[in-house]
């Protein structure tokens, strides 16, 4: 259980730790399994609040999901309803509680519309405030009814069908992912055209404007293909051709799947390894090794290793090990956050420990996360004595050139990434750091402070 408030005493972290499972993959695999033809066993050891939100929503839609501790056994919606003699379109409105999970909400809206279900979508925290347009515009244009946005419950009814769709690519990759799922669920009849046989449920999805968080879209493609979907993408990754499932409208289960290690959460330990030499008497630390990470993962946040190397840290191995620079000093640089916004809070801690200035650019989407993450990252650093300049889409951090951060009190801002970034900052502070609202870490990493202590962190719960 994650504590509500913690006081962290300065202590460098070092050692080896396994990566937690990636919630971004868990969401996608659980949803695909619930929309498949036969049961799927998904190896997943992590039980974060966001992952459990997706489990809860898919159960509400009719899937039977058994928690086996190290895995989930998913009996799909279609199979479970068929055993009861039910059809999705005949069912009453169902309430879908997404908690604070933006991925769950944004994927489930087009999925519900593809199933022809009526649903009342609800959630917690800032979820109602986070934008749904242009996804909502696309759904309404397709004939789906949505109640007023920004207010829960959000009522959804109607059906999205085969068609040619377009959506802006610079708001949320989750909008694109949800639509790709919905278009993959279109029932497909085989039709003859001359000597060839094809599918009559072929849709296109075109992304307009700048495409941000593209790695998350690739992750969606990877999971859909593992479940038999036919998704073709243009070379510039702006146009998708999606062929619907067979006449059943179901994906095809591979039987077993596994959630890979999470680069986004591993980034906190890797940065802690990189800043370990800050402060007197900390030179020569062994660094931190995180096991269970795929070097070739579709996760965009694996860029953390390359960015830390550019800052001067020592990065090595498939079981990724990060050590402080040999001279004990990181150096500032410019980081383009367009594809890796979730890394900004923790990389800002590395920036605070570096020589020179680090500027994060193309970071405007951080303002629509669990908190206004540009503002809350800046506030977190200022609480610890760091000079920060916040722009509309930028964050500039003046490094303290090897001098420890100050102690202080940090608001967790009900944001898991702010809480965990502050905890990393505490390892290089000159005095205790109190984090208010530390419980927010459970959203993605419920055992964060247990693992923090296992690596040598000094945690006081109060």
Write a short abstract of this structure.
The chain is an alpha+beta fold. It has 13 helices and 26 strands. It is elongated, with a radius of gyration of 23 Å.
What does this protein look like?
It is a single chain. This protein is α+β, with helices and mostly antiparallel strands. The protein folds into two domains: 5-20 and 262-461, Enolpyruvate transferase domain (UDP-n-acetylglucosamine1-carboxyvinyl-transferase, Chain, Alpha-beta prism); 23-243, UDP-n-acetylglucosamine1-carboxyvinyl-transferase, Chain (Alpha-beta prism). It has 13 helices and 26 strands. A four-stranded mixed sheet has the order 24-25-1-26. Strands 2-17-19-18 form a four-stranded mixed sheet, with helices on one face. Strands 4-5-3-16 form a four-stranded mixed sheet. A hairpin with a 2-residue loop joins strand 11 and strand 12 (196-199). Helix 1 (23-34) runs parallel beside helix 7 and helix 10 runs parallel beside helix 12 (416-426). The longest helix is centred in the first third of the chain and has 14 residues, at 102-115. Belongs to the EPSP synthase family. Phosphoenolpyruvate binds at residues 23, 102, 130, 174, 373, 417, 443. This is 3-phosphoshikimate 1-carboxyvinyltransferase. Its main location: cytoplasm.
């Amino acid at each position: 259980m994650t504590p509500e408030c913690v006081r962290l005493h300065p202590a460098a972290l070092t050692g080896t730790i396994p990566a937690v499972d990636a919630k971004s993959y868990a969401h996608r695999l659980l949803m695909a399994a619930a929309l498949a033809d036969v049961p799927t066993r998904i190896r997943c050891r992590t039980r974060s609040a966001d992952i459990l939100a997706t489990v809860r929503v898919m159960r509400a839609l009719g899937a039977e999901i058994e928690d086996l501790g190290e895995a989930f056994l998913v009996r799909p919606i279609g199979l479970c309803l068929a055993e009861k003699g039910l059809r999705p379109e005949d069912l009453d409105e169902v309430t879908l509680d997404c908690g604070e999970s933006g991925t769950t909400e944004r994927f489930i809206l087009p999925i519900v519309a593809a199933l022809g279900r009526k649903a009342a979508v609800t959630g917690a925290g800032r979820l109602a405030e986070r934008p749904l347009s242009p996804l909502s515009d696309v759904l309404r244009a397709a004939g789906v009814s949505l109640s007023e946005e920004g207010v829960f419950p959000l009522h959804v009814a109607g059906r999205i069908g085969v068609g040619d769709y377009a959506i802006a690519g610079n708001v949320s990759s989750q909008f694109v992912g949800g639509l790709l799922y919905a278009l993959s669920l279109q029932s497909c009849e085989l039709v003859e055209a001359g000597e060839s046989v094809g599918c009559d449920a072929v849709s296109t999805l075109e992304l307009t404007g700048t495409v941000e968080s593209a790695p998350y879209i690739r992750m969606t493609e990877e999971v859909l293909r593992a479940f038999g979907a036919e998704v073709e993408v243009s070379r510039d990754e702006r146009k998708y051709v999606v062929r619907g499932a067979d006449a059943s409208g179901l994906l095809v289960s591979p039987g077993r799947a596994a959630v890979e290690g999470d680069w986004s959460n591993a980034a906190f330990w890797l940065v802690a390894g990189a800043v370990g030499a800050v402060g007197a008497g900390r030179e020569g630390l062994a660094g931190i090794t995180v096991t269970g990470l795929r070097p070739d993962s579709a996760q965009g946040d694996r860029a953390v290793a390359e960015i830390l190397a550019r800052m001067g840290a020592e990065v090595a191995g498939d079981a990724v090990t990060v050590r402080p620079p040999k001279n004990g000093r990181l150096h500032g640089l410019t980081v383009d956050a367009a594809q890796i916004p979730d890394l900004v809070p923790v990389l800002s801690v590395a920036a605070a420990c570096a020589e020179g200035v680090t500027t994060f650019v193309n970071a405007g989407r951080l303002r629509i996360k669990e908190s206004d993450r540009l503002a809350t990252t800046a506030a977190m650093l200022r609480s610890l004595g760091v000079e920060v300049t916040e722009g509309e889409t930028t964050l500039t951090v003046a490094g303290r050139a090897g001098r420890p951060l100050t102690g202080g009190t940090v608001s967790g801002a009900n944001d898991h990434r702010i809480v965990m970034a502050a905890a990393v900052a505490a390892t290089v502070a000159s005095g205790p750091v109190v984090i208010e609202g530390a419980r927010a870490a459970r959203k993605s990493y419920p055992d964060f402070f247990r693992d923090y202590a296992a690596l040598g962190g000094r945690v006081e719960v109060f």
